[in-house]
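Researcher: Next sequence.
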Amino acid sequence: LENTDDMENAEYWLRMAADEGNSLSAYLIYKSYRDRKFDETPSDKMKYLRMAADAKFGYAEYEYAKYLRDKSPEDAKEYLRRAAEHGSFQAEYAYGKMLFEQGKKEEARAYFDKCAREDAWTEARVGLLYYYEYQDYEIGKELLKDSAEQGYAPAKEALKAIEQGINAQIVIGVCDLLYYA
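Model: Next structure:
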């Protein structure tokens, strides 16, 4: 959007659609507040996030789960589960990690299988989990290779480390520090 009038026009139409029940529009309003594209009215920001989350929009449920993490951990877990069930790959990964840490490794694996399809970062993390935690070396390396082919440099370094007998989890952690610096 090139000018203030365009932004106000977009905000108007998004609000209209959200108030009519469009969950994507409600989420986009929340996101615009979050990213400071709209002048923030704190009550509106959370109103539209809740509107989208209550309409079962997965990415909104994930954002709401993060918001609730310290305020109400049990509610946060429920929203995280819902977000994972509604297709938020970030929530699928986070919920899978939570299950994994609770010792529910096979249940977690189902969430890892779903989220690995979305982006190179997640695919690399799931690849490392499969390689080291599940000891499913073939799938772990396959996921890391696919992530590397997408241009994710830390996955390339992780594969080199595995071939050299070095713990790739440490290598990818160091690479991430440099990659995101």
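Model: The chain has eleven helices and no strands. The chain has a mean pLDDT of 86.
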